[in-house]
Amino acid sequence: MPFDLTELLHALRQTAVERDRQGGHAAAEKARIREAGLLRLAIPQKHGGLEQPWPDIYRLVRQVATVDSSLAHLLAFHQLQVATVLIYGNAEQQRRWLRRTADEQGWWGNALNPRDTRLLAQDEGPDFLLQGTKGFCSGTRGSSYMTVSARHPGGDQPVLGILATNAPGIAVQEDWDPIGQRQTDSGSVRFDQVRLSGADVMRDHRTPPTVFHTLRNCLAQLVLVNLYLGIAQGAQHEARQYAHAEGRPWVAAAVDRATEDPYLLHRMGDMQAQIAAATALAERAAQAVQAAWERGQSLTAAQRGEVALAVAEAKVIAHRAGLFASQELFEVVGARGTRASLGYDRFWRNVRTHTLHDPLD
Hints:
alpha+beta, 4-stranded mixed β-sheet
């Protein structure tokens, strides 16, 4: 990777606890990420981007998630929208929107939630008029552009398009108030007779998806894998730091230091085993995604299926590792580690909130 994230990660960690309490929009921190050049990671070089391979992008997301999973979520979903344009958009749409992204260093948001069908698209000549609401629109607040999906009464497939976030009729709602992932700007967006130009329609309601189109689902699910895994690694790091600096051995351990406590070592070992397994599966899935990405429209259904299985396997283990590590953190730090000023509860709240959106069941 051409990035040294040390300074960025330190800055995010310094303010993470207080920002978690406040919630809301992390404008200053998003500006830091933009200034670091991270918004150009997935954009092809021919459009002014860095064209980094997906395994590197996911590792970077994971690193950010160790200190701030909300900002990692925003960074990852930005890359996912860039990928959406590369998967669904035609050459002209890619050139126009991705070159603009690279030049302006703008953030992408999304209104693509496929389970939310409240947003309707009506024909208006070569264009569509959008009316309704979309929920769970991560990254829309403070974004410059967004991808959008809307239900059309005349077709089975959603209309997929691109809009400037400040287009007339778009209202980004500040109604995101969960227990975790509190700065992902994942509220709802209201569309009031918003015109989606035919030139910015990536796929209409009459066009069935290709196999390569469905690779986007794998890319999205692998975002979750790396967020969960980053949270687990962050919780493990805080547990280790606390044990060395302030930890006390259990009275029955018959040792002088917490780091010699066999009970604590057992818990840390369990965390490490789960995190190591999740990391190996996440890396394998990222390599599979990259290989499928390079195949493009020649990707077969069988090949895509293998990618989906690799991602799903990684997700199961990362999901469990995230919940386990964020809980076991408290068994390591003990009662004194529950001080509100430490903010250790954010790891569990973040991973619990996110894992509920795509449950293992």
